[in-house]
Design a protein that fits this description.
By secondary structure, the protein is mainly α. It has helices at residues 13-17, 21-30, 35-42, 46-55, 63-66, 72-78, 81-90, 95-102, 106-115, 152-162; strands at residues 141-145, 167-173, 176-181.
């Protein structure tokens, strides 16, 4: 006994031809729906929606608008740069925290601060915390805590490289590691 597979019903040509371009514009431009979401609503493909929008002269969104990463000029119009500078300098809030509060990238916050002539504070450094690494003699080892440290292997190799050293890293436990100076 054969079973028939039901195919989803395709909209008629009349419905597809009669899509209201103003409705498409409202959904795509004003409500910022994706092409796929609009297509799903009307039962046609994303490409068909894109074709109708382009024929109506509606440009596609760029990478910047799609991912809410506005250009620097748009930021200049939308944000109070002086307030950002005051917050950074007086409240000593980091660039990372400022970017999260403003909803923009770290790069944009740094660019805003530099455009206003602000001297950027150095980020957190682990070099001072592990100063024993710099006084380590060739062939000797030290045990260091690496608890809550992101990418400890790369961190110690980078610290050593800055001082012209070569080190080997061996994890002893999840919280500690043995660093041996090779050169």
């Amino acid at each position: 006994m054969e079973t028939e597979v039901e195919k989803p019903e395709r909209p008629s040509k009349d419905i597809r031809a009669a899509l209201d371009i103003d409705e498409l514009r409202r959904l795509y431009v004003d409500k910022e729906w994706t092409l796929a979401r609009i297509g799903k609503k009307f039962g046609i493909s994303r490409q068909a929606i894109q074709l109708r929008l382009s024929k109506a002269g509606i440009k596609g969104r760029t990478h910047q608008t799609r991912y809410k990463n506005p250009s620097f000029e748009n930021l200049r119009k939308a944000l109070d740069f002086d307030a950002i500078v005051r917050t950074y300098e007086e409240k000593k809030i980091s660039i990372c925290k400022l970017s999260k509060q403003l909803g923009i990238s770290n790069w944009h916050v740094k660019k805003i601060l530099l455009s206003k002539g602000v001297k950027i504070r150095p980020g957190r450094s682990y070099g001072v915390k592990h100063s024993r690494l710099y006084s380590l003699e060739t062939g000797k080892s030290i045990v260091v805590r690496v608890e809550n440290m992101k990418f400890p292997v790369q961190r110690f190799h980078n610290l050593a490289t800055r001082k012209g050293m070569k080190v080997s890293y061996m994890a002893i436990s999840p919280n500690s590691a043995r660093i041996t100076r090779l050169k």
